[in-house]
Specification:
Blueprint (H helix, E strand, L loop, with lengths): L2 H11 L2 H4 L8 H5 L6 H13 L2 H7 L13 H21 L3 H10 L6 H10 L1 H4 L7 H13 L5 H4 L3
């Protein structure tokens, strides 16, 4: 089974309430594991948020949570990039491909902006993949800067 399909299936099965704040943005888990990086810390923060008071925190606006309906999911993007780094590098260098399409879908790029997204990633390929040992976090940071530089794509940088 293709890794991208498996990842998408796993993400679709994860409960949204447990994911809220897993990226360190809000909830008890984000405060307990603040400053820690990596999958174990994110999983523990997500589990803590799903288990303890997440609904209360979102409803009342405490623990860094807001009621604007936005749930950031950087951990999904990081996981996808980690699993598909070589394919993404190839696709970004060409400005098209399945891995790049999947990344665009995870970010929520609308169909009318997909071509601009592909162009920006191709034009900024050297910045996004700055070295052979670039991390998913580095890729996300560079991708965010690249999207912010293009007016029509800047709103998508908020997701990253």
């Amino acid at each position: 089974m293709n890794k991208s399909i498996l990842l998408a299936a796993l993400i679709a099965m994860a409960p949204a309430g447990a994911m809220a704040g897993a990226d360190g943005s809000c909830g008890v888990g984000s405060h307990l594991f603040k400053g820690q990086r990596g999958v174990p810390a994110q999983v523990l923060a997500m589990t803590t948020n799903g288990t303890f008071f997440q609904t209360f925190a979102v409803t009342t606006g405490t623990s860094g949570c807001t009621q604007d309906g936005v749930v950031k999911s950087n951990w999904k993007l990081s996981m996808f990039i980690d699993l598909n780094k070589e394919k993404l590098a190839r696709d970004m260098s060409r400005g098209e491909g399945e891995a790049l399409d999947s990344l665009a879908a995870l970010i929520g790029i609308a169909d009318e902006h997909k071509s601009a997204f592909e162009d920006v990633t191709q034009q900024n390929f050297g910045k996004i993949f700055s070295s052979l040992d670039v991390t998913a976090d580095d890729i996300l940071a560079s991708l965010k800067q690249s999207l912010e530089s293009k007016t029509e794509l800047a709103p998508y940088a908020v997701v990253i």
